[in-house]
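Sanity check. The docking grid for flavin mononucleotide depends on where the pocket ends up, so I'm generating a full predicted complex first rather than guessing from homology. Inputs follow.
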Amino acid sequence: MQILDSLAWRYATKKFDANRFLTTEQVDTLKEAFNLTATSYGLQPLRLVVINNKELQEQLVPHSWNQRQVADASHVLVLCIENTIDTAYIESYFDRVKTIRNTPDEIIAPFKEFMINSFKDKTQEDLDTWAAKQAYIAMGNLLTVCGVERIDACPMEGFVPEKYDEVLGLEAHGISSVLVLPVGYRAEDDMFADFKKVRKTIAESILEL
Ligand SMILES: Cc1cc2nc3c(=O)[nH]c(=O)nc-3n(C[C@H](O)[C@H](O)[C@H](O)COP(=O)(O)O)c2cc1C
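Predicted complex below; grid placement will be based on this.
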């Protein structure tokens, strides 16, 4: 039941303690967890931007519906999608498979061709939607890891992606912001920490057939 305790401990932190910071080891754990997230075909159309810069964090507040969590958190994680998922991108995935697993070309070739062809038919909008879904999986994964590691976090859709992209200069890196996750320690007076969880009953939430 330990995992359920961790999931119950976690809550969407509304007020962070601006004077407490995560260790490098804790942040490294979050980076690794992000990178270990399952993604469709294993293509990882994602990048995690890690911000640990109070000035920059303060600049993000007006672009975050004035939510102070981004300024007060120890670090702000911005989950981004890759802007270009083309043939070269898919080929680079198979190059990794070859290098890491030593998989022969004749095994890789048919699957590679299938993937390149199926991605060719997708519009940019299809690709962005597909990639954004992977970002949500990564966010879920990170939230669970935060609970287990007793790192406070607030999942956030309440921000203006275009403004984040501009302020953080993400276009130059070929990525666009999709989700924000401030992480750190809850403030002692964050009253939300003591609120009971509002959830459907298991009977309402689960359909057993
Ligand atoms: C995708 C997503 C976006 C969210 N956006 C925000 C947000 O912008 N600001 C905020 O304070 N909480 C945000 N939340 C937190 C939810 O309101 C919160 O998870 C939900 O009410 C359940 O509460 P709990 O996480 O404390 O158990 C978001 C949660 C998710 C999953």
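Relevant for the grid: The first strand starts at residue 46 and ends at 51.
Also worth noting: Residues 11-12, 14, 67, 154-158, 197 surround flavin mononucleotide (CB under 6 Å).
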